[in-house]
Amino acid sequence: MKYLKQLFSLIIIGFLAFSCNQNERSVGFNDWTDDGTEYKFYLGTDATVDVVKGYNDNWTSRKYDEMRTFFNDTVKITFNNGQTVTLDEFVEVMSDRDVRLDSMGASLNWNLARAFSVDIDPTQGGEHVHASYEVEYNVGENTTKFNSNIWFYVVDGKIVTVDQQSRPVID
What is the greatest pairwise CA distance in the chain? Predict the structure, then answer.
């Protein structure tokens, strides 16, 4: 019985030592580096996803002043058509769009369906958050749907870049 307890204790200690020394799992590759080094992706954090969720909550509620707090001062925002704007220009585009939608009795509903974060190098700051939206545009009896995938780069709790790609949904 004494040997069984010792064997059991040794197995537990070995398991703990093994599990505590596991490297973070990394997968894939990317070329998003300034130095040309190829990095892999690591699982990101909920904190960066929460930044994007906070932005989204304020953006979809048209609280643009509160929304601004989630962005870095020099944020670069690129729309689906390739147009790149500053934060001030983004707010202006969104405000103008809201006025047009309201005047037509139309709606544009963005549903944040899923989001995840990946980290290129956990020893440096910054994570990429992928947010997938299901979008519905309604005007009168007509409805148009599209999906939009938006990449946010978040550093120190602030969005630094935004890049959008979209495609129509064909029923």
Answer: 83
First to last CA, the chain: 68
Alpha carbon separation from 128 to 14, 22, 26, 73, 113 (Å, rounded): 36, 23, 14, 18, 17
Instruction: Supply the pTM of this predicted model.
Output: 0.80
Q: Domain 27-168: which CATH class? A: alpha beta
Q: Which residues neighbour 110 within 8 Å (Cβ) at sequence distance 6 or greater?
A: 56, 59, 60, 133, 134, 135, 148
The residues, ordered by sequence, that sit 6+ positions from 60 with a Cβ below 8 Å of its Cβ are: 110
Domain boundaries, the chain: 27-168
Res. 10 pLDDT band, cuts 50 70 90: low
Backbone phi, psi, residue 37, to 5°: -70, 140
Q: Give the ranges where 21-86 is alpha helix by DSSP (H).
A: 46-60, 64-68
Q: Write the Ramachandran bin of 70: left for phi over 0, alpha for psi from -120 to 50, otherwise beta.
A: alpha
Amino acid type, 161: T
With H, G, I as helix, E, B as strand and everything else as coil, classify residue 91. Answer: helix
Cα 152 from Cα 154, distance rounded (Å): 6
* CA pair distance 39, 141, nearest whole angstrom: 49
| Residue showing tokens 């037509």 | 104
Q: How long is the chain? A: 171
- pLDDT per position as a tens digit, 136-152: 999 999 999 999 999 99
